[in-house]
C-alpha cells in the first residue's frame, strides 16, 4: 500500500471519493466467494465448523445451495479415493499403512495413497473414520477468487486512504461511522481487519487521540502532528495497520525522539508506552 508516503499533502474534502448522498464508498464483500475461500481445504463434513462456524444458521441453506451450484459450475470439487486419503493422512501414516500391507514405501503422498487404494487398503481405512473427503477449489475457482480479491483489495486500499484523509480533516465521527459500516458489512461475523471496538467506543477513542497533547509534550514538530494523530486513529480503527511503519515513513526521527524522552521508561519498546499515552492511559 502506497499510503502516507508524502510528508505534506494538502487534503481537501472534495478530494474524498464519495458516492450517492455524500457517503464514503465502502468496499463490497461477495459473501459467496468469501464462503468458498473459507471452506477451501476443509473437510466436507466440517463445512460449518471451525472458521466457518461464524456463519449464522439462517444463512446456511442459501450457502449450501450456492455450494452445489459452485460444484456444477466448476469452482470447487470434493476429493475422493487416493486424493482424500493423501489429504487425510500424513506421509508418515501412509508409510506405516504400506509397511503393514507389505508394500513399497517410496514416492510422494499421492503415490503412496494410490498404492494403498490399488491394493484394497482404502476401504478398510474409511471404515476407521480416518479418511475424509475434502473441499478443494479448482483452478477456475482460484482464478475467480483471485480476481475478486484484487478488486476488493483495491477498494479496501482506497477506503483506508480516504479514511486517513478524513482523519486529517478531523472528521472523526464520519470516519468512525464509515469504518463501523464497513465492519458490519462483513457477512460472517467479525472481520479480521478490525479491532474489537464498537462504533461508539471507536469514535470516543479517536476523539481522545485527536485532542491528545502527547505530541506537544514530546516536542514533535507541528507539521507532523496532524499526520501522526491520524495514523494512530487508523491503527485503532484497522487491525491490519502498521502504525510504526507509517510514522517512520513521514517522520523517521520519531522513534529516536521517543527513546530519548523522559516519558518513555521501556526504551527498547518505546511504542508500547506511546500507544497508551496517546489514548489517555497512564503509563507509570
Task: Note down, in words, how this protein is organized.
The protein is mainly α. The chain has a domain at 80-132. The protein contains 14 helices and two strands. Strands 1-2 form a two-stranded antiparallel sheet. α7 packs across α11 and α9 (199-210) runs antiparallel to α11. The radius of gyration is 26 Å and the shape is elongated. The model is unreliable at 1-13 and 18-22 (pLDDT under 50).
Radius of gyration, in angstroms, nearest whole number: 26 Å
Structural class computed from helices and strand pairing: mainly alpha
Q: What oligomeric state do these chains adopt?
A: single chain
**Judging from the principal axes of the Cα atoms, what is the shape?**
elongated
Number of contiguous helices: 14
Major sheet attributes: 2 strands, antiparallel
Order of helices and strands: HHEHHHHEHHHHHHHH
Q: Which residues form runs of ≥5 with pLDDT under 50?
A: 1-13, 18-22
- Average pLDDT reading: 88
Cα separation of the termini = 36 Å
Amino acid at each position: 500500500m502506497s499510503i502516507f508516503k508524502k510528508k505534506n499533502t494538502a487534503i481537501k474534502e472534495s478530494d474524498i471519493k464519495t458516492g450517492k448522498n455524500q457517503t464514503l464508498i465502502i468496499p463490497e464483500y461477495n459473501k459467496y466467494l468469501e464462503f468458498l475461500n473459507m471452506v477451501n481445504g476443509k473437510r466436507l463434513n466440517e463445512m460449518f465448523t471451525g472458521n466457518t462456524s461464524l456463519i449464522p444458521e439462517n444463512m446456511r441453506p442459501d450457502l449450501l445451495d450456492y455450494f452445489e451450484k459452485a460444484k456444477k459450475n466448476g469452482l470447487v470439487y470434493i476429493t475422493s479415493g487416493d486424493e482424500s486419503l493423501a489429504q487425510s493422512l500424513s506421509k508418515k501414516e501412509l508409510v506405516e499403512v504400506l509397511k503393514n500391507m507389505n508394500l513399497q514405501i517410496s514416492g510422494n503422498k499421492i503415490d503412496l495413497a494410490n498404492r494403498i487404494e490399488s491394493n484394497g487398503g482404502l476401504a478398510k481405512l474409511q471404515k476407521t473414520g480416518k479418511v475424509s473427503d475434502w473441499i478443494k477449489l479448482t483452478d477456475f475457482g482460484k482464478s475467480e477468487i483471485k480476481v475478486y480479491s484484487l478488486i476488493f483489495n483495491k477498494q479496501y486500499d482506497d477506503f483506508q486512504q480516504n479514511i486517513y484523509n478524513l482523519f486529517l480533516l478531523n472528521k472523526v465521527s464520519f470516519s468512525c461511522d464509515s469504518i463501523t459500516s464497513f465492519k458490519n458489512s462483513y457477512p460472517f461475523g467479525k472481520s479480521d481487519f478490525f479491532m474489537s471496538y464498537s462504533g461508539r467506543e471507536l469514535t470516543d477513542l479517536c476523539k481522545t487521540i485527536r485532542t491528545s497533547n502527547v505530541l506537544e509534550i514530546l516536542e514533535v514538530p507541528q507539521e507532523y502532528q496532524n499526520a501522526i494523530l491520524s495514523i494512530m486513529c487508523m491503527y485503532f480503527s484497522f487491525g491490519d495497520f502498521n502504525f510504526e511503519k507509517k510514522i517512520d515513513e513521514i517522520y523517521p526521527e520519531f522513534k529516536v525522539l521517543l527513546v530519548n524522552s523522559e516519558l518513555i521508561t521501556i526504551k527498547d519498546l518505546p511504542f508500547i508506552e506511546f500507544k497508551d499515552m496517546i489514548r489517555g492511559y497512564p503509563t507509570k
